[in-house]
Amino acid sequence: MMKKLTASLIFGASVLLSPLALAAASDDPAVIAKGEYLAEASDCTACHTQEHGGKPFAGGKAIHSPVGEIFATNITPSKQFGIGNYSEEQFANALRNGVAADGSRLYPAMPYTAYAKLTDEDIHALYSYFMHGVEPVDNPTSETVLPFPMNLRFSMAIWNTLFHDNKSHQDDPSKSEEWNRGRYLVEGPTHCSTCHTPRGFMMQELGDQNLAGAQVGPWYAPNITPDEVSGIGSWSKAELVEYLKTGRIEGKAQAAGSMAEAVTNSFQHLTDEDLNAIAEYVMSVPAINNASEDRFTQGEAGNQLAQFRGKAFDAETEAEGARIYSGNCAACHGYNGQGTDDGYYPSMFNNSVTGEENTSNLIAAIIYGVHRETEAGGNVFMPPFGDQPNALNSLSDEQIATLSNYLMDSYGLASAEVTPEQVAVIRAGGEKSPLVQQARIGMAAGAAVVVLLLLGFVLRRKRRK
Amino acid sequence: MSLPSNSDVVIVGTGVVAAVVAEQLLDAGLSVVMLEAGPRVSRAEIVENYRNLPLGNKGNAIASYPSKPWAPHPEPNSGRPGDDYLQVSGPNGIGYLQSYVRYAGGSTWHWAGTSWRLTPEDMRLNSNFGVGRDWPFPYEELEPYYVKTEYKLGICGPSDEAEQWPQGVPRSAPYPMPELPFSPGENKFTDVVRDKLGLRNVHVAQARNSGTAYDNRPACCSSNNCVPVCPVGAKYDAATALGRLEAKGAKILHNAVVYKVETNAQNQVEAVNYLDPDKQSHRVTGKTFVLACNGIETPKLLLMSADDRNPNGLANSSDQVGRNMMDHPQLAYKIKLKEPYWTGVGPVVNSGIMETSQGDYRARHAAAYFRFNNFAQNRFVTFDTLQQGLVGKALDEQLRHNTGTSGMIVAAHEILPDPNNRLTLSDKKDWLGLPKPAVHYDVGDYVRRSAEEFSGPMIQRIAEAMGVLEAPKTVGFRPSKHIMGGTIMGTDSSNSVVDDVCRSHDHANLFLPGGGAMPSTATGNSTITMVALGFRAAEAIVQQMKAGA
């Protein structure tokens, strides 16, 4: 009785608050299909579906964040374990403001800062899809338990005050319809900045560095502003569209890690029109120059086989990196690092991975391998070389550093240096944020998180001026 | 490494049969210890060993796997620990110089991946033709285990029923992956034998990822390097499974040479004993025991384990342990073609003429299947071409011509179980002081008649149809390295070693799955039948252990 009363009170309040509350989930197939498309564009499955055959949107997947593991929730319409009891307004509130139906705060691993851009119409379509187009799965998921003080979810309310802009998308009448559509998709559903924009001390996106490149766990989401040298200004729009469809542009770049997932689960399913709109917009954002060398044109073919061929496998050689390459990589990538003519096996030179100063992607590709699957680009699978059960060979931190230095010296930016310590960090999932430690120190000093937050607040206001 | 005492199951061997049995047991919640005589090495090391070989030795599949002193495997004429490890004698002794690998992962390291099933006829030679032995169960009972094998190993094969082997026998599930395309040479060969001889050359089902990743392993990169090692793990080999077994809780101990299997007063197996490279002995106890250490090492170990209760060796009350040693006696013919065929794109064996292996003629002589190998020929023709004294462009052109116009056709025969083809313990000892295996081998009149009346003439017809410069010759019967028969299966415990689930007739907790159990060889490679028997044995082990027997 009490529950019912509360529910109706909330319902009543909602009616007053928002026009959305009047709408029920639509069972119109066209609306549901649109919602499904938006769910693909938003790549909900990347976090909310377990890999290796997890039930769609049943949650449970651990998201490795710099402050600890965050478990994605069940967002199927299960009434007990999912979002089956959510009203459309509650659903919208979670997507746009990071507030769950019970009032608890979501961590911004859920990109609600981007989904805030979603229009009412699209929220309605998404809601209809999740209520009517998704099978309910009655399974609970693991609780997220972040270390103190990150476990204080209410602190997210303060974070939101400081960093969250919940205004939904508005067209810029001075720009084309395509550009506006592109901006909507990029800033909203496809949430590009979530990975590609560097974050500040409080894990907030740095607006003045929009899409300028950022570390995402073990991977580096590179600069995708239209800067000719640091970004993708040398790409045509058609190339960017091809990349989003296949995860690859021959002789330039290939998607791995979470970008491979995004291409596999999301981008390849978008219409050509939407992909072109994305390209149109991305190529128009402010170009940011933050590297001195173009990452697509470094290096050349070559090998050091003469230094060890014919000697015993354990004989000393100065070309140890080249020998590791020969035994582990050359069967696919070629004895000269040349790859294959069709580009299925990329060349090691003219490759954005070896041409990038940040060597995370090189190290991560070796440790974790590559997997993506697209209709246009087929099934691409490079086995891992870490400690996985299916590692082709399990290479040590030392070996991966030696190999990486050989690859960078021979085929990429020779100036970059990889140490075994760096490899160990990537193997462990990337740098941990100092935030936890610093917040604790701050609290011990009696200053509490609030001080840090206030500091962030002041900084933000300054920047706005 | 400390071993848990009294594991549910102790498995001797880490090859394909051992690995598959182990995984079934682990999945059923049993604890498993695996013991491997040889070392555990990285794929990169074997790949580099191969690349470092001189050209003349690259055709030797075993040369990339130098054996350790404590775990010799046959390495004829190598000057290595395995040089005269396998002692052969008899009219076709040289035809039984097997190669197998005593490394963690076993001999699938260097198999071609060829995965022909047996046919219903292959399993009833005695009933149908009055020769050899019948299997204790029909094909229909083996079929589901073939399917399990095909999905576990990742076997690609044709979806077109007309292309499948056996023909006209329903499959209960499709292959998990499509067949690999033919090379230019195979396309031409297929057309020629169809048009001129009315024979059908069909796709080999093979344990290789065709155009897609499977089982968290990459797609075949067409390196044509399957033998001696797949450099990318696209071909199934048991080494690719070991990490997964460990993740599921298996304990794998390498450099552990099991030399004695112990029985207790009830004549149940109680423990195995192994020597380490320091010649120290260790004892591992368990509840159930599986010996899956290949068709030579398994009977050898049983004979070495003779005790007061089992004076002729374990599992040997029938005196059949080590007898009936079989293989697929193979006649290989190098051919020089008038027109280029070009083999070498794709895997080394990619097609075969199987339909010739069935028929009433099996009452009189052995069946055979025929194939045109798909090995790239450049490495085989280089020395001869260099000796022609050419240089520069002329040399390049001649090399190219010889590569395109050279090839090899092969007749692979079945053989009957003959108790006189026998493995015994040699007086000669290996580095640890353990007896070397000795095998007496005669392919027998059944096979010789086939070569005279059937397979030899057929090879000549095929060669002629292909357009050869001269009639091809063979050096005689050579091994196919498919070791079978030494622990033969049957319902009668007086003339067989194991029952229909590969359980020893003499010891209820001792299982001997693998090629040794096969009562007939047919003509196709034995691995998937060995693995199917492994699945069957694993099921029986789980049942037996759950029942508390």
Count every beta strand of chain A, where a strand is a DSSP E run of 2 or more residues.
Answer: 8
| Largest sheet composition of chain A | 2 strands, antiparallel
Largest interface: pair, residues per side: A-B, 26 and 29 residues
Average predicted confidence as pLDDT of chain B = 96
Largest sheet, strands/sense/barrel of chain B: 7 strands, mixed
Unreliable stretches of chain A, pLDDT < 50, 5 or more residues? 1-22
Say what the CATH topology of chain B is.
FAD/NAD(P)-binding domain
Span of the ends, CA to CA of chain B: 30 Å
At CATH level 2, the architecture of chain B is 3-Layer(bba) Sandwich
Class from secondary-structure proportions of chain A: mainly alpha
Adjacency order of strands in the biggest sheet of chain A: 1-2
What is the overall number of helices of chain A? 19
Number of structurally distinct domains of chain B = 1
Stretches with pLDDT under 50, minimum 5 residues of chain B? none
Shape of chain B: globular
Radius of gyration of chain A: 24 Å
Order of helices and strands of chain A: HHHEEHHHHHHEEHEEHHHHHEEHHHH
Q: Give me the secondary-structure category of chain B.
A: alpha/beta
- Helical content of chain B, roughly? 25-40%
Defining traits:
heterodimer; A: 465 residues; mainly alpha; Cytochrome Bc1 Complex, Chain D, domain 2; two-stranded antiparallel sheet; 19 helices; disordered N terminus; B: 549 residues; alpha/beta; globular
Break the fold down into its secondary structure elements and pairings.
The complex is a heterodimer of chains A (465) and B (549).
Chain A: H1 2-17, H2 29-41, H3 44-48, E1 62-65, E2 68-71, H4 88-97, H5 112-115, H6 120-132, H7 155-163, H8 177-187, H9 192-196, E3 214-216, E4 219-221, H10 237-246, E5 248-249, E6 253-254, H11 257-265, H12 272-282, H13 320-328, H14 330-333, H15 360-368, E7 370-374, E8 378-382, H16 397-411, H17 420-427, H18 435-444, H19 448-464
Antiparallel strand pairs in A: 1-2, 3-4, 5-6, 7-8
Chain B: E1 7-12, H1 16-27, E2 32-35, H2 43-52, E3 87-89, H3 125-129, H4 139-153, H5 184-197, E4 202-203, H6 239-247, E5 251-253, E6 257-263, E7 269-275, E8 281-291, H7 297-304, E9 330-336, E10 351-352, E11 368-372, H8 378-387, H9 392-405, E12 406-413, E13 422-429, E14 435-440, H10 444-466, E15 510-511, H11 527-546
Parallel strand pairs in B: 1-2, 1-8, 2-5, 3-14, 8-15
Antiparallel strand pairs in B: 4-10, 6-7, 7-8, 9-12, 11-12, 13-14
Helix pairs in contact in B: 1-6, 1-11, 4-11, 5-10, 8-9
